[in-house]
Amino acid sequence: MPRYLVTADPVASFQPRFDTTLRLMAELLARDIEVDYCDLLTTDMSLGTDTWLATLPVRPVLWSDPTRPPYVGTGELRAAAALDYDVLVHRKDPPVDGRYRGWAERFAALDGRRLQINEPAEVLRHSEHLLPVRFPDCSIATVHCREFADLLAAVRAQPVEAVVKPIGECSGIGIAFFRPDAAEPVLLDWWQQYGEAVVQPYQDAVTTRGDLRILTIGYRILGSVTRLPRPGSRLANLHQGASFHAFDPTPRQLEAVAAVTAELVPRGLYLLGLDFIGDLLSEINFTSPSAMVQIGEVMHKRPEVELVDELEALRSGFVARAIVPASAPA
């Protein structure tokens, strides 16, 4: 029987209405797959990497039900090794700060010995806000601002308005809109609060077509949903009050999905949330992509079933690759 470990935030922080992790764990348990949970905040980062990986604080998941508080039932706490599991599914939400990077660096030390969703070494190598730059033919122009002078120049260079995003945040946190002639002290105030950033030109389509999420696992599209800003807002994040609706991906969007997955899946970035404004990529989410529940509601299906189908296929393929037959004698 396969064994899965889900690493995540504390259970108390889960948002049951739209939580992907709860549905994932429920579907794994429905298939009699053993699931343990590790609250990353309880790990002892003073330990060396090998010891840390060998003594993770875990609890068995007994049940998972987003309609039944406290939503997850767990058993007794025990120490377990990362190598005890066949699959590690990492569901820790950003910010991608020093603590987040510390956890990812520890798991990256497994160095391909276990299937990890997503591969921590690749998570550390990229930024969700910057990764679309690798696909310039299908992405919004994006400027990486490491210094305040970069931010100032990028905002001044926009023809109409700049969208400024903190590089390590998610869910619309810190996103701001600045005209090219924005006062320098106003920009400096933002920089002092958030620091390193990306700047993109504002896209009118966000208020008409919304922010379009296509969720993929491997090369398979689990579904799509569009998020429309609430009246008076231009933030299409559900955490910022946006509504969600059905939409069918356009041919250009599907071409972008094919290009992105062809490059990133072989690197170990299996579960992706690709965000489009109009036909252009704005972000590629890979830390803990969400919107699976909203996709299920607007498409009238249970994408967690397809997700686990693909996870199990990936696991089987990973095991097959690991079993290398001995060479025949010369």
From TrEMBL:
Chain ranges of the Prokaryotic glutathione synthetase ATP-binding domain: 128-298
Gene3D superfamilies from the UniProt entry: 3.40.50.20, ATP-grasp fold, A domain (3.30.1490.20), ATP-grasp fold, B domain (3.30.470.20)
Pfam families given in the database record: GSH-S_ATP, GSH-S_N
Prokaryotic glutathione synthetase N-terminal domain: residues covered: 5-105
Superkingdom to which the source organism belongs: Bacteria
InterPro entries: ATP_grasp_subdomain_1, GSHS_ATP-bd, GSHS_N, PreATP-grasp_dom_sf
Protein name in the entry: Glutathione synthase
